[in-house]
From TrEMBL:
Membership in a protein family: Belongs to the D-isomer specific 2-hydroxyacid dehydrogenase family.
D-isomer specific 2-hydroxyacid dehydrogenase catalytic domain boundaries: 6-315
Species per Swiss-Prot/TrEMBL record: Maribacter flavus
A matching Pfam family: 2-Hacid_dh
PANTHER family linked to this entry: D-ISOMER SPECIFIC 2-HYDROXYACID DEHYDROGENASE CATALYTIC DOMAIN-CONTAINING PROTEIN-RELATED (PTHR43761:SF1), D-ISOMER SPECIFIC 2-HYDROXYACID DEHYDROGENASE FAMILY PROTEIN (AFU_ORTHOLOGUE AFUA_1G13630) (PTHR43761)
Residue ranges occupied by any D-isomer specific 2-hydroxyacid dehydrogenase NAD-binding domain in the UniProt entry: 131-293
PROSITE patterns in UniProt: D_2_HYDROXYACID_DH_1 (PS00065)
Transmembrane segments: none
GO MF entries: NAD binding; oxidoreductase activity, acting on the CH-OH group of donors, NAD or NADP as acceptor
Protein name as annotated: 3-phosphoglycerate dehydrogenase
Alphabetic keyword roster: NAD, Oxidoreductase
Record's keyword annotation contains Transmembrane: no
Keyword Magnesium set for record: no
Length: 316
């Protein structure tokens, strides 16, 4: 049985599928030739990431396709409803990259409190001529331990961030309209585990008491953090967005950075992706990454294995 992984799949995923008798094709077929390729090669399962579009036209063109798999979370590139109507099973891997995103949040947080985003810009330019001045300007960093992290959106990634924060000695507060009480178990390398019981905090209270705020909500109609929310925050708060462009008002964020309401921001996602605003890219108080939150080797392996396991159980 043939599976086409059109946007790639990890070697671990390929090996697991092959061990179970599947033939995995990893050729990247152009969108307009995809229907023809699938029919000609009798492909039963199509795996995609975000690049390949599984739209109505493709579904109509491939009457023998039985399964579509999305490596990752968002299904924006797949017409899920139409696929279901045509009897095609649609699968994804919603939790495979949660820890990777959570670790990137902490990369931005640890980098933020010690000005790494700025030091890495200035050391190559002035590290030899102005070492002492730079040492002085970056010499009033902060520790994360003992500070309060406010997490808005407490699903898979929000909870993964909370576990890292608790492990780092932070106090965690969260707001999520769907959750009141959450128990989180932290497991350690030697088999020990500790369970924390957290209660929801009202959003305004979270905004007032948090030293750092990170957002982990799905795409929204309205901003989750805009001018009104920034106004309520502590002076000098740090803000992280590794969720979606458009959940934070970037104009309000830049204003808040310029008035020192916000001391730094860490951004992995942007309102105008894939061309973030130049004011964001050039801002000296923003730590920047190009939407790589879920992109680690470990997440790729988990995605490949999770897809393979679901395919095996679907076709057996
Ligand atoms: N940076 C990356 O590369 C990357 C990778 C994977 C996922 N993401 C993004 O991370 C976000 C979270 O993913 P997840 O897997 O944790 O999703 P999830 O569905 O597990 O959790 C989202 C939570 O947000 C809550 N929520 C919704 N609207 C809210 C609001 N207005 N205020 C507070 N809470 C709200 C929901 O109740 C839910 O519990 C998504 O936007 C996803 O696209 C980014």
């Amino acid at each position: 049985m043939k599976i086409l992984a059109n946007d790639g799949i990890s070697q671990k995923g390929i090996s697991l599928l092959e061990k179970n008798g599947f033939d995995v094709i990893t050729t990247n077929v152009a969108q307009e030739q995809l229907g023809h390729f699938i029919n000609k090669n009798e492909v039963m399962g199509l795996l995609v990431r975000s690049a390949t579009k599984v739209n109505k036209d493709l579904i109509d063109a491939c009457p023998n396709l039985k399964l579509v798999g999305r490596g990752g979370v968002g299904m924006d590139n797949i017409d899920v409803e139409y696929a279901h109507k045509k009897g095609i099973q649609v699968i994804n891997t919603p939790s495979a990259s949660s820890l990777s995103v959570a670790e990137l949040v902490f990369a931005h947080l640890y980098g933020g409190v010690r000005f790494l985003y700025d030091a890495n810009r200035n050391m190559p330019l002035e590290g030899d001529s102005k070492f002492k001045q730079l040492k002085k300007s970056y010499g009033n960093g902060k520790e994360l331990a003992g500070k309060t992290l406010g997490i808005i959106g407490f699903g898979r990634i929000g909870q993964a961030v909370a576990k890292l924060a608790l492990g780092a000695g932070m106090k965690v507060v969260f707001f999520d309209p769907l959750l009141d009480d959450v128990s989180l178990t932290l497991s350690f390398f030697d088999g020990q585990s500790v369970t924390f019981h957290l209660k929801k905090t009202d959003k305004e209270e979270l905004l007032r008491i948090s030293d750092f705020i990170t957002v982990h909500v799905p795409a929204q109609k309205n901003y989750v953090l805009g001018k009104n929310e920034f106004d309520l925050m502590k002076d000098g708060v740090g803000i992280i967005n590794a969720a979606r462009g458009g959940v934070i008002d970037e104009v309000a964020l830049v204003d808040a950075l310029e008035s020192d309401k916000v001391s730094f921001a860490g951004m992995d996602v942007y309102e105008s992706e894939p061309r973030p605003e130049i004011r964001i890219l050039m801002h000296p108080k923003i730590s920047l990454t190009p939407h790589i939150g879920g992109a680690t080797n470990e997440a790729q392996d988990r995605i490949g294995i999770e897809l393979a396991e679901q395919i095996i159980s679907h076709f057996k």
